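Dear support,

I submitted the protein below through the web form. The confirmation email said the job was done, but the results page showed an empty box. After a refresh the structure appeared. I'm attaching both so you can tell me whether what I see now is the final result or a partial one.
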Amino acid sequence: MKYHPPQQAHDSPHPAQEPEQETEEVEEKVSWREILLYPGDASPDPISVGGRALLLAALALWGLWLMTSSIASNAAGESFLHLINLPFHEAGHVIFRPLGQFIASLGGSLGQLIMPAICFGVLLFKHHNTFGAAVCAWWFGENFLDLAPYINDARAGQLPLLGGNFGHSSPYGFHDWEYLLTETGLLRFDHGIAQGAHLLGSLIMIAAIIWGGVVLYSQFLLMREQE
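What the results page shows now:
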């Protein structure tokens, strides 16, 4: 009788697959940590790290002023950054117009949120620039603060609109959020929705500043190791 040794490698494939699955899970966790916290620069220098620190401090102070200002003051809407957000707002109306009047009206607000989100994705996933992505996250949150006074004005219609019109004197549908909240039956909640947008934007901005600080600290440690 011929002896045939047991073929463990072929008869029991499952034990060999489990370590591979565990390895893949570990690699996935590590990769996400690297994506979010990777310093970005292979060899950061004092000038670049110092410049980013100054920028982050400026954004933190500016963001604190915007977050603590009342919605009625329209602090974000009167800042120069509003002039940067406005073209994306108007472009959103044009881009979403084929989807009907309601989506076209909503498209203005979506447009000024989508642009910083796109910049965030490109900087983080394509260029691995985590600090730049944190700045874009701050900008994304700021856009909620920029929209809050517009939402808050849905019933009053007192804010000046593009072209010199006002919500209370312009045709129905010209004021985006008056139209959107009227069509959805939520007009009486305009102040509460505006406060929610302001709070959400503030939380995003705070998270972005903390994230940027962690990335800068990682760059500082890497710079010290290379000295």
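Response: this is the final, complete result; the empty box was a page-load delay. The longest helix spans residues 190-225.
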